[in-house]
Design goal:
The protein has 197 residues and is α+β, with helices and mostly antiparallel strands. It has 2 domains: 31 residues; 154 residues, Glutaredoxin (3-Layer(aba) Sandwich). The protein is 41% helix and 22% strand. It contains 6 helices and 9 strands, in the order H-E-E-H-E-H-E-H-E-H-E-E-E-E-H. Strands 2-1-5-4-3-8-9 form a 7-stranded mixed β-sheet. The chain has a two-stranded antiparallel ribbon with strand order 6-7. Helix 3 packs across helix 6. The longest helix has 26 residues. 28% of the residues are buried.
């Protein structure tokens, strides 16, 4: 009988603990855990040679892509798609800023990068800088970028291939994945404009 009473008290204690925790967890403030995307950097615009910082991007919604001019497929395909979306947006494209950040600053000088992005659309602004400063931006936006040696002694770059969509306050809004359906991507750009108007 004594064991039975102890078991009853233990069961009551467990039940009260569960009820107290349940009440506490319902009243607790739920804080979403989101990694920050974006952050301080000091780089150079290729269109005018002027410095550009993270704070300079604020003020209008913007789309960022990280790539390199010697990229055989992903980068030219992505910039071609961006150019087509800009045409489809018409005058609304001017309400968005489009940036191409190099991940290969050793080869992508201001002149090289300016000429490269200009082939696709003059409104796409190339961003370059020293390897150290570019790494700061690459890290701030959580971009994967890695130099890969080739058999001939040259190298290529392996990198993530999403376009980052950023709000006018610099906060992360979403991505357009490489190869994503064009209509879906265009709708994401329109939604970015709507949410920042």
């Amino acid at each position: 009988m004594k064991k039975f009473r102890i078991l009853i008290w233990v069961a009551i204690a467990v039940l009260l603990s569960v009820l107290a925790f349940s009440k506490y967890s319902k009243d607790a403030v739920q804080v979403p855990i989101v990694a920050a995307i974006g952050g301080p950097f000091d780089l150079i615009r290729t269109d005018n040679g002027l410095p550009i910082t993270y704070d300079d991007l604020k003020g209008k919604p913007h789309a960022l892509f990280f790539g390199f001019t010697n990229c055989p497929e992903v980068c030219p395909t992505t910039l071609s798609e961006v150019s087509a979306w800009m045409m489809q947006l018409g005058d609304d494209a001017d309400k968005l800023a489009f940036y191409f950040f190099t991940i290969d600053p050793e080869r992508d000088t201001r002149e090289v990068l300016s000429e490269y992005v200009g082939v696709f659309d003059s409104r796409i602004v190339g961003i370059t800088g020293t390897p150290e400063n570019m790494q700061q931006a690459i890290s701030a936006y959580r971009v994967y970028a890695k130099k890969v040696p080739l058999d001939d002694g040259d190298y290529t770059m392996d990198h993530s291939a999403s376009i980052y969509l950023m709000n006018s306050d610099g906060s992360f809004s979403g991505t357009i994945s490489y190869g994503e359906d064009g209509e879906t991507a265009l709708e994401k750009l329109k939604n970015l404009l709507k949410s920042n108007s």
